């Protein structure tokens, strides 16, 4: 594919014009409007309350809707502070001494004060918003404390290593139960809904309990689905889940499943529902696809076909099911210009330059969503694919376990099988294929590219811990060891050595076949160190390969402004265009660190 950076830049800019709206919450929404570069708080009529500098992570409107507590960060490093937005004045007052990192705010019913766990300083803080006075209670060093809505004054969730999470009614001190991994809790009628690693529990808030069984009203669990969000509407629970590689809505009445359906459909695109929520009694969903920019729809609007906007009407997304070497069906969603016969049955039969993305870990589903790089790449004649690999959350618990721990190499093998399947189908060729992954997905993409260099022309990693033999060196890396099966035994260390992209790169002899490499570093990343990426570049160069790193200034592992994402996306597209423009890898070795 012969293209120029300016063409890619223009195409990416056009795709980035589309905003990313947020779900209604207390009469407001946190999102990015069309044509804007950062997120702001908007009223439901579309008018803006405030669009401050920095990064708004989450919002918590007061019951009287006069104030909005926010989690605000000056940079993309995810370390935030508490702020209060005056809705009428459109002003933001920051409490720099209340330091947060994804912590829930609980308002009192009269909107006069709030409670929040300031997790960065291990404090429970009560703020009187009328006087500005604060009460601070230090937290014990053991365990993690979280607050959730429910009961008369909220719920208290205390987690400790090896002992799970105990949920307590703050008003009465009543223990409601213990779960091995509790994701979220909230009110359900007069009780509490608990979303945990084994499904959903409805719990009585009145009965004293020493364990979950004593107070559980009902339990729901389906091992073949992965819950990704949950909402309560009129005492009925609505779970957003992933089953068989696609989004489904599951309705539960007293723990009994009374309905299951795909939330949205499109003739030209594959749609994913990314979030659900109830506001003023209405259920709202966030829907998007590779060609369909994010939109918020009410449940009553579902059932109609959603069409991509006209700029993307000459492209299509198609699901392919590809057999793995062991016979398991692997799914990949491919978005491409509509003229590609291998995908739509019309037009040319030529294979296309392709960016093949992946994740494959932590039970997280890798679903087709709208990223501006997708329509931009399609506009210049390429194909963009989302591979679903074992270890992710696309097909339930057995799928997750098949690529977890000591079976992690199965995830890498799955990516290789997907690439082979697409090549065999004539959709792409090895010299036109670029593997790409972020974070854990970068580990998988790099491991696959180095183990099977014959399958691709290049590979891209973004913020990836490429040395899986030293995960604990990263700020949050100790918590990832189980995902890769690192229990410290000689057997596990030997297995990790075979899996580790960096270990493989450092052992390559000079002249070994090596796909071209771009290693992206996030300038404000607080989870993954840049060290592994730089060592990967150095190792591949020593072997004679083409490798370079690029730093996304102002970007972090969490929410980012579109300006930072533009430069990052352009770097990846430019690299993909370069390495797929001929049948041989380029000779660029410049390091743009």
UniProtKB/TrEMBL annotation:
One of its GO terms (cellular component) is cytosol. The keyword S-adenosyl-L-methionine does not apply. InterPro entries: AB_hydrolase_fold, Peptidase_S9_cat, Peptidase_S9A, Prolyl_oligopep/macrocyclase. Its EC number is 3.4.21.26. Residues 376-580 form the Peptidase S9 prolyl oligopeptidase catalytic domain. It catalyses: Hydrolysis of Pro-|-Xaa >> Ala-|-Xaa in oligopeptides. One of its GO terms (biological process) is proteolysis. Keywords: Hydrolase. It is an enzyme of class 3 (hydrolase). It comes from the Bacteria. Pfam families: Peptidase_S9. GO terms for molecular function: oligopeptidase activity; serine-type endopeptidase activity. This is prolyl oligopeptidase. It comes from Microbacterium oxydans.
């Amino acid at each position: 594919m012969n293209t120029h950076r300016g063409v890619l830049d223009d195409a990416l800019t056009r795709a980035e014009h589309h905003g990313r709206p947020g779900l209604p919450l207390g009469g407001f929404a946190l999102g990015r409007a069309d044509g804007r570069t950062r997120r702001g708080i908007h009223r439901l009529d579309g008018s803006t309350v405030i669009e401050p500098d920095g990064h708004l992570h989450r919002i918590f409107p007061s019951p009287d809707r006069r104030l909005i507590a926010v989690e605000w960060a000056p940079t993309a490093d995810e370390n935030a502070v508490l702020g209060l937005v005056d809705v009428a004045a459109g002003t933001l007052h920051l409490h720099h001494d209340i330091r947060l990192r994804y912590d829930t705010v609980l308002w009192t019913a009269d909107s006069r004060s709030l409670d929040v766990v300031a997790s960065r300083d291990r404090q429970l803080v009560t703020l009187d918003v009328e006087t500005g006075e604060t009460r601070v209670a230090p937290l014990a060093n053991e365990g993690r404390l979280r607050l959730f809505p429910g009961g008369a004054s909220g719920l208290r969730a205390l987690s400790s290593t090896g002992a799970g999470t105990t949920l307590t009614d703050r008003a009465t001190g009543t223990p409601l139960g213990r779960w091995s991994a509790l994701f979220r809790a909230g009110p359900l009628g007069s009780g509490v809904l608990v979303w945990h690693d084994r499904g959903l529990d409805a719990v009585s808030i009145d009965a004293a309990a020493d364990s979950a069984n004593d107070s559980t009203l009902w339990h729901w669990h389906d091992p073949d689905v992965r819950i990704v969000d949950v909402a309560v509407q009129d005492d009925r629970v609505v779970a957003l889940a992933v089953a068989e590689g696609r989004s489904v809505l599951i309705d539960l009445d007293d723990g009994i499943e009374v309905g299951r359906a795909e939330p949205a459909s499109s003739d030209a695109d594959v749609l994913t529902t990314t979030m659900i929520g109830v506001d003023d009694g209405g259920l709202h969903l966030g829907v998007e696809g590779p060609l369909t920019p994010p939109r918020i729809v009410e449940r009553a609007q579902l059932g109609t076909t959603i069409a991509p906007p006209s700029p993307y009407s000459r492209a299509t997304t198609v699901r392919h099911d590809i057999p793995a070497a062991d016979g398991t069906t692997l799914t990949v969603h491919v978005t491409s210009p509509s003229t590609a016969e291998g995908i739509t049955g019309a037009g040319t039969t030529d294979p296309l330059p392709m960016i093949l993305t992946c994740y494959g870990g932590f039970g997280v589903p890798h679903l087709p969503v709208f990223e501006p790089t997708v329509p931009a790449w399609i506009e210049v004649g390429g194909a963009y694919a989302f591979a679903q690999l074992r270890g992710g959350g696309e097909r339930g618990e057995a799928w997750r376990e098949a690529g977890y721990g000591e079976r992690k190499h199965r995830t890498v093998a799955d990516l290789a099988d997907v690439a082979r399947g697409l090549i065999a189908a004539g959709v792409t060729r090895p010299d036109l294929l670029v593997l790409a992954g972020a974070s854990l997905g970068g580990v998988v993409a790099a491991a696959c590219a180095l183990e099977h260099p014959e399958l691709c022309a290049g590979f891209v990693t973004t913020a990836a811990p490429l040395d899986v033999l030293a995960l604990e060196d990263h700020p949050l890396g100790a918590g990832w060891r189980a995902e890769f099966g690192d229990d410290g035994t000689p057997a596990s260390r030997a297995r990790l050595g075979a899996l580790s992209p960096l270990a493989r790169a450092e052992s390559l002899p000079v002249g070994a076949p090596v796909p071209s490499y771009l290693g992206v570093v996030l300038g404000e990343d607080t989870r993954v160190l840049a060290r592994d990426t730089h060592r990967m570049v150095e190792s591949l160069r020593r072997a004679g390969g083409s490798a370079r790193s690029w730093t996304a200034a102002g970007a972090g592992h969490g929410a980012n402004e579109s300006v930072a994402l533009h430069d990052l996306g352009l770097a990846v597209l430019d690299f993909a265009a370069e390495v797929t423009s001929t049948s041989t890898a380029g000779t660029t070795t410049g390091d743009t660190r």
